[in-house]
Design a protein that fits this description.
The chain is mainly β. It has 1 helix and 33 strands. The strands form 8 sheets. Strands 1-3-4-5-6 form a 5-stranded antiparallel β-sheet, with no helix packed on it. The protein has a 4-stranded antiparallel β-sheet with strand order 2-33-32-31, with no helix packed on it.
Length: 405
């Protein structure tokens, strides 16, 4: 492995410090899908408010990430995902700055039922860390120079999940966390962000899922929240020790935890398994669950908690808005299609990017008020969105599009 010393404290943990409005550093930003931007586009179309479109090689389901003037994105190519791409684009112009290409450590048959470049990378002030379903984990600097690389498959064995690896790496202090939730020998791994070397690896009862950890600070403890096919749990980021758990869940296979204050909303496609849990490690097991859902579910996207309200989107595209502390429902509405990207909160609005490219914009509030309905002028399904001041960067199967001029 080759590496350079880190130049800064890398983490921007949720519940502690929001990312500045010119940064969207990882999956769901800092893990909550909330932007601090003061101005965001409200309306767009094929002829209005589209700055640029950049084509990508191959295919990808990851979200783009942004660090100031740079957009980073990944994709895979080939029948067996033989070729892995990490690309950097200029945020203002959409011009490609560089493309780094790797050969996958193992062959993974391309299929509509297996992940295709699904993990979202991490961006920091001096590097980008990218994970692929081939088990390849890389760190590059902002000029595309390789800092270190490793193969999780070579180190820990082949993945055993039926639908491939969909989890995204997550930054936790100066460590990178990777959840490998699979049928056999699932684990949560922490590696040093500067060197790529192991900090710790914890095996637990993680069922197969595509969810990603969410990092929060609970008291003085940096905690990794995991929700994965049957289990919700908190882990000490320093040691990997499990601090608490709730088992017996169903349907929590894609949505990632959403933390707010001393609580976290665990999304699930099974309504009784969508719940809010208390994060304090000292809470008695019987008091861990604050409330369970009676109707709201989260299927592909993770739930959003924004301005003291929670939003969940079901498999069918039904949105439910409720009080995140009590579970009381305020309103529900039906979107034109389901959302594969998580809803986004910013500038006092909630943005629902549906898989078919239609975005419903609603005012954040306990009564439904639609502000706009916009159609993305790009082919392919929408998989993820990055948000910075005055702009959305939307990821489709083989392109990224900047909304907002």
């Amino acid at each position: 492995m080759r590496y350079l010393p880190m130049l800064l404290v890398l983490a921007i943990p949720a519940n502690t410090l929001a990312a500045p409005p010119d940064v969207w550093p990882g999956f769901r930003g800092t893990g909550d899908s909330i932007s601090e931007a003061k101005q965001l586009p409200l309306k767009w179309s094929a002829t209005e408010n589209i700055a640029w479109t950049a084509e990508l090689p191959g295919f990808g389901q990851s979200s783009p990430v942004v660090w100031k003037d740079k957009v980073f994105v990944t994709s895979v190519e080939g029948e067996f995902k033989d070729t892995l791409h990490v690309l950097c684009f200029d945020l203002a112009t959409g011009k490609e700055k560089w493309k780094k290409t790797f050969a996958g450590a193992i062959k993974v048959k391309t299929s509509d039922y297996v992940s295709k470049g699904a993990p979202t990378p991490i961006a920091t002030a001096d590097r980008v860390v990218a994970l692929f379903e081939t088990g390849d984990l890389f760190a590059l600097d902002h000029d595309g120079k390789e800092l270190w690389q490793r193969s999780l498959v070579k180190d820990f064995g082949n993945f055993s999940g039926q639908h491939g690896l969909g989890t995204s790496p997550v930054l936790a202090g100066d460590a990178v966390l990777v959840l490998v939730a699979q049928a056999k020998s699932p684990y949560l791994l922490a590696v040093d962000a500067g060197t790529g070397k192991d900090r710790w690896r914890t095996e637990d009862n993680f069922g197969s899922s595509w969810s990603s950890p969410t990092v929060v600070k609970v008291g003085d403890t940096l905690t990794a929240l995991v929700s994965s096919s049957g289990l919700a749990a908190g882990f000490d980021v320093k040691t990997g020790k499990r601090l608490w758990e709730v088992d017996g869940l169903k349907g929590n296979t894609v949505a990632s935890p959403t933390a707010f204050g001393d609580l976290a909303l665990m999304g699930s496609s099974d309504k009784t398994s969508q719940m809010v849990v208390r994060l304090d490690g000292e809470v008695a097991a019987e008091k861990r669950i604050a409330w369970r859902s009676t109707s709201a579910t989260s299927s592909f996207g993770s739930p959003l908690v924004y301005k003291d309200l929670a939003y969940s989107v079901s498999r069918e595209g039904n949105v439910v808005c409720l009080d995140p502390k009590t579970g009381k429902e305020h309103w529900d509405t039906r979107l034109p299609a389901s959302c594969w990207a998580s809803p986004i909160g910013g500038a006092g609005r909630v943005y629902f990017f549906t898989r078919d490219g239609v975005c419903i914009v609603a005012k954040a509030g306990n009564e439904f008020e639609q502000l706009a309905e916009n159609k993305l002028p790009a082919k392919g399904k929408v998989y993820g969105v990055a948000v910075v001041e005055n702009a959305f960067i939307v990821r489709t199967e083989s392109a990224i599009v900047r909304i907002g001029k």
